[in-house]
Amino acid sequence: MANSRALALVLLFCALASSCEVALSYFPPAAKEDFLGCLVKQIPPRLLFAKSSPAYPSVLGQTIRNSRWSSPDNVKPLYIITPTNTSHIQSAVVCGRRYKVRIRVRSGGHDYEGLSYRSLQPENFAVVDLNQMRAVWVDGKGRTAWVDSGAQLGELYYAISKYSRTLAFPAGVCPTIGVGGNLAGGGFGMLLRKYGIAAENVIDVKLVDANGKLHDKKSMGDDHFWAVRGGGGESFGIVVAWQVKLLPVPPTVTIFKIPKSVSEGAVDIITKWQVVAPQLPADLMIRVIAMGPKATFEALYLGTCKTLTPLMQSKFPELGMNPSHCNEMSWIESIPFVHLGHRDSLEDDLLNRNNSFKPFAEYKSDYVYEPFPKSVWEQIFGTWLVKPGAGIMIFDPYGATISATPESATPFPHRKGVLFNIQYVNYWFAPGAGAAPLSWSKEIYNYMEPYVSKNPRQAYANYRDIDLGRNEVVNDVSTYSSGKVWGQKYFKNNFERLAVTKGKVDPTDYFRNEQSIPPLIEKY
């Protein structure tokens, strides 16, 4: 009787909706039909996509950024739900709890391991895809903004710039990154030394909890609010929107990109860089992108070339920076210039949601507290970066604001003493071409072990790496002991507080994936 009623509801909503392919194309088993019937009571069928729907592959694939996770051997969601308002998300959670279908959440699709839309083990789950919830509201007078989790960083940056060219927000470098994932895991870019991470500049959220209830900062409590600002996406509920603090930047900023090959002294220069860059004034960020036998020194300075040039000549003369290297522009123009190397059209560069660059990819990360000996840099540039299958290494210097913030202020713990972060990036472009890149990534990661952080060897949560460990599920709950293996690498001593908070807000572990925070239930 219940199944017949669910099917009748589907057909009724189909008759009223502009699109009914999901309802007519898929007749699932009884338990799943009850889940679908529950959904269509509150969510228009045109926003629901079952596996048999003709549109399912394109909806699933539109924001998959790593083509490794598009292959048929990945466990895919039973349904994709594309909400257009908060009530749809609440309904998805309530129905999922009722019919034992777990929910995973995707905002921009940059999840390096794809755990926001795939499972490593057989599991009944649906994906709430926030692609249609991407509004941005800027309060210029109050210097704040509300931004939906489904917006991309480029859309947030662009909306801020439409109000003022002298306000900014310190999140990621790539404009296509989803706001939800970036802020949930910390979020940092070229303003990290001036203003720290994105998460510490979040002042309120709207969140749907594991029971489908809507919360803000006041109703969720201090621990819960602390956890969602850097504790990783999805574990503590679905953040629908974020209120962020907008921060001042000057009318003119300066960018330079100075490539140096090994024959031009790259090894000596980067050996000096690792000590100098973390000690520079907060207004100056110089990161390094290393590829092959070449290092590109890429900088953002909050000021003009006139003041940058003597600063560089005083603090870092080894680089040989001079006024001919300067590119002056507004902060908003620096976003595509850093990422793409040009600033032809802000609208095209920042608002483009049709990213066709979807390579097969592997990523890892490290944190460094002690300068590398010159011999290590010689090995990196002379051996590792010129091997078959070699990838790219990106070095982001810390110091100033990001390092001055206490480790416990947010779940993101990589603070005092960090010289720089390393991201290892490797791409290939055909399904069978991954052997050499994957081997290189594993081998260089092993080679670097003596020279990076220890006990634990730290990693950045937004550079998710399943090789660090995965949760084990016992009695339908992720175990704390298995989560601690990878969790302390991302969060250090903050992991226990995250797990205790999870135990309070989601004790049955409804929101979970292979690297979600496990619940730790305190005993009194």
TrEMBL record:
Pfam families: BBE, FAD_binding_4. PANTHER family: OS08G0158400 PROTEIN (PTHR32448). The keyword Ligase does not apply. Residues 73-249 form the FAD-binding PCMH-type domain. Keywords: FAD, Flavoprotein, Glycoprotein, Signal. SUPFAM superfamilies: FAD-binding/transporter-associated domain-like. This is FAD-binding PCMH-type domain-containing protein. Residues 1-19 form the signal peptide. It comes from Lolium multiflorum (Italian ryegrass). GO terms for molecular function: FAD binding; oxidoreductase activity.
